[in-house]
Amino acid sequence: MIRLRAVTGRRLSFASLGGKLLLILASVGLVGSIALTVLLAAVITPSFSALERQAIDGHVQRTRAALSDFAAKVESSVRDYGDWNASYDYIVNPTRAFEQESFSPLAMANLDVDAMAYLRPDRSLVIARWIDPRSGRENDTLRDAMVRAIRQAPLDGAMKGGNSGHFYLRLGKIVAAVGVAKIRKSDGSGSPRGYVVMARRITSAQLAKLLQVPARLDLGSKDGRLVTTSSTMMQIAVPVTGAEGKPVAVASFVVPRDVSQLGRHMLWLAVLGSTILLALVLAVLSRAFSLLVLKPLGRVEGHMQRVRNSGSLTVLPQDGARHDEIASLGRSFNSMLVQLKELREQVEAQGFELGRSESAVAVMHNVRNALNPVSTILSTGIGQTAPVERALIERALTELVAAETAPDRREKLATFIAAAFEAEERQREDRSGQLQVGRDAMRQVLEIIGAQQQLAHERPPLDECDATQIIAQNATIARHSGKGASIAFNFPAKKHYVMANRVLLSQVVGNLFSNAAEAICAAGGSGSINVTITETHNGRVEIAIHDTGEGFDPGATPQLFQRGFSTREHKSGGFGLHWCANSVAAMEGSLSLESDGVGRGATARLVLRAPAREAAKTDLAA
User: Fold this and answer.
1) Which of 360, 498, 580, 614 reaches 20 to 30 Å from 538, CA-CA?
2) What is the pTM of this model?
3) CATH number of 362-621
């Protein structure tokens, strides 16, 4: 990947590569940005979206207005019957003459309503009638359904504090606009004596006629969405609300997305224009880069390939006609080749000495880690005294064999002597165990020294090793290298096999345990080291060693494996992790360290290759 950087403090001219590229990119970028901004940002996307939202709002408002006007006409008719002296007298003293005159099919047809009803203030029925407009006959079923619904409806709430109001009512599969008014005198005086109700059925055909678009009343819609759109059409659903404000039906109609389609056409036009523009830009830039950059860099790359294949650090032939950055790059490249040739000779002369020195330092570091438990065990053994003084035991024996010693005193003396011998036996067993640990540590030192000559000259052989056994052995040794720290070890008991060099793997695990023990000592002197072993699906085995020690700053993670680096300022060395990482890499594995921060412990992850049979089992399980 080629990166272009502007060099500060350097003057750009049109004869330089940077000047030429800057001129081309500035010209093409200016034209392209203006065209794309005008076509896409300023016109197409926001403008047509706003127009479509306005169109949708217009359809919704027009539908609501049409529904409101339809119901308002019913309310206007019922208001005339509410403020009428004849109605005011009839509600108290119903007469046959009023019913024949005011409730006749002709009167209801003149009012353009399908149903009428008079109710007392307690909602008891005085009279109700529903006339089917198609047959001209009364429909008792719809009348009874209307009466039941009106008795349950909040009529006063529908009137909103006035003397009349309107709402929509659903009666089975029929939706009707209902007008309600309080019955008063013609001049509006007098206490209301009840309610007069009129209803007018609304059908899909009437709705389509009102809206001048193909519309329908949907009685079973539960979607709840106001607008549903497709690529070419949009369906608008406006709820028809009842007396309680809840929808009783949905007025639904479909209109074409003319504005959106126009926007899409404009968008395609903009895309086509921007495509042509970008194609032109790419053609110009491709030609310019080919002539000014790629072809000269190809010469440099070809020369680098020849240098890599032959190993001969010969200089790159220069083009004397060029005086721009590419020519400067060629001169710098030739200077670098000359310096590399000189450095190669120096490295070859120093390589052997440096390798031998680093190998010796790493071996001494590992030997020191292995000898630390021996020193601790010897110091403990030297300072350890007898559990019970010899003179005290002899006095107890003398008193025990004396004839004048009382039986109960003799029993106590016998118990004391037995306890003393038992304590001495436990001390002897403990000392034997510590010596066993010291012997294992010495054996590990001898193995390190014995294998060093072979490991220094060839790649270490990899064998099938039991990682659990190596971890358990080094955990026993590490317990004695904590310099008085109380460390609890937890590791799995199940055998886990890996492909590794047993000596190298033991040294790596020992180094990691030693570092964890030192971190626990630095954090306060007590803690735990937990080891988990996981067999992954890709034929690898991960050994995670987590300690509760002082941890480290996550920002220092990239430096942990550098030669001579240490997370503790007072500690010298820094060869352990560097050597461990190189050794694990030689065993075809990887080593990483991670921590959540200072004081929060650390985790070392050692990943090695699983034996072939283990890898096969893992593949079958997967």
Assistant:
1) 580
2) 0.41
3) 3.30.565.10
